[in-house]
Fold this protein.
Amino acid sequence: MKYLYFAFFFLFLGGLQLDAQNFTPERRFEGGLIAGFNITQIDGDLLYGFHKIGLNVGGKVDVVLSERWRAGIEFLFVQHGASRSRLDNTSSVYDDIKLNMVEVPLMAHFRDWKMQASAGVSYGRIFNSEIIDITGEDITETIQLSEDVFSIILGGGFHFTENWFLDIRWSRWLNNIRQDEIVPIQGGESGKFIGRSIIIRGIYTF
């Protein structure tokens, strides 16, 4: 994984150096408002499929590095988790997992025409959680979760106008947030929580 980070970093620097020649931006910073939703699941809970929908809202600031390259930071409120469907594994003890988080992604963006490709990493902090078992009982207090979440993000989108942008992303946690003992069972590991998200957002830039 570390070699992938180095390759991305050097490609980013090389493209930036070529693109920055003879470029003077009209403005150095761009702000934006973000509103959208996450479609999420958690690997390790034995609930399969992206059945949980939550908010993804906040703001962002981008630094204009060149005509095509931008680097940015976002400040988000996001909702993550998992939810049982009628086809899910009956071995899973979970019915519903809700995680409320603040998240700070650091992103690099490449623009060409109206298209944009993005990649980055993020840090999230869980400030509220609720875990319901298959009987409907709240078992939140019995599950030890880390409050810190580290993620990798890949995405792209389309600029409909100079100000309006559709952003679609995929995100995966890099760390397991379960802190108690992992208990292997048939069909998977019941003690591992690693989240994945499909993220769809509208962004207004100014």
